[in-house]
Amino acid sequence: MTIVSCSHGKHIGSLIARKLKSKHSYLHVDKFPDNELSIRFDCKLKNQNVVLVQSFYGNISDCIIEIMFAAKTAHELEAKKVTLVAPYFPYLRQDKRFHKGEAVSLNIIAGLIDSYFDAVFVMDPHLHRKSRLENIFKIKSKKLTANPLMAEYIKKRIQNPVIIGPDEESYKWARDVAEIIGAESRILKKKRHSAYHVEVKLNKKIDLKNKNAVIVDDIVSTGNTILETAKILKKLRAKKIYCICVHGIFANDALNKLKKAGINVVSTNTIPNKVAKIDVSGEISGILK
Q: Within 13 Å of residue 22, how many CA atoms lie on the same side as its CB?
């Protein structure tokens, strides 16, 4: 097996290869003056099981074109099998046509992956109506989760935790983490007015006196939902407020906003950032063995 770190997989590809004791290489990615991409392998591909590691953050469009070029090239150079490992996978929210004329982005991106790869593994995909990757991809697929790792982090470092899910979608992560560590949990209700304006409400009373509130979610993007949740938790006199997430996108200076609000933020390393303290490379390497 050869692990190849793409441009947005460099932070974790080498860690995966080290745990597997596999060969590791970096995909060379350059841009021409007109911004067209140029990619090149510098490792043997013939008769190899090639694993491309790419996390889709930042310039997502470039990330997609890059892995398509890489997968097609690997097949042309006679790789035995080409697998995509996506610590963070994009376009999962748009899983139906919400408004007339909209593209169903999930179906389009899934079709591209099916065309270029033999298998795909994704860490904590943000699934809605289609709850299984097998209902999205035609090729072999596997959903991985960082829930046990987040639970372990909380158990070792945070005393008297109460796990808080900031909205209904977060229950898959918050309740699972709470059950693993045997902690109390609450799932809040969210009403989204726009991408930047959300309203969060507590449906059931909870006693946070002398307890630490731990907000658990899969994605933190703008951080607005977390900020609104923290306001409620402060009113309930939580001792400290933590936020632990899988995918720390932290768009529009969200991380600094959360810190200024007194929230202790931790994420996994599916996306590299300043608070990526939970390493998921072991979970990924386990599925590749």
A: 23
| Long-range interactions of 267-275: CB distance < 8 A, separation 24+ | 267/220, 268/123, 268/146, 268/149, 268/150, 269/11, 269/12, 269/87, 270/12, 270/55, 270/87, 270/88, 270/123, 270/124, 270/146, 270/246, 271/55, 271/57, 271/87, 271/88, 271/247, 272/11, 273/248, 275/248
Active site residues: 190
Residue numbers of the chain with a pLDDT score lower than 70: 129-130, 190-201, 203-204
Q: Which two tokens stand for residue 285?
A: 């390497």
For residue 96, the model assigns a pLDDT of: 84
Helix axes 281-288, 10-20, angle to 10 degrees: 50
Question: Rounded to an integer, what distance in angstroms lies between the CA atom of residue 77 and that of residue 1?
Answer: 15
Q: What is the rounded distance in angstroms from the CA atom of residue 132 to the CA atom of residue 111?
A: 16
3-state class of 169 per DSSP?
helix
Can you tell me the distance from the alpha carbon of 90 to that of 71, in angstroms, rounded to the nearest whole number?
Answer: 18
- Tell me the per-residue pLDDT of 81-97, one tens digit each, with 9 for 90 and over: 999 999 999 999 887 88
Q: Which pLDDT tens digit goes with each residue over 39-92?
A: 999 999 999 999 999 999 999 999 999 999 999 999 999 999 999 999 999 999
The CA distance from 72 to 59, in Å, is: 21
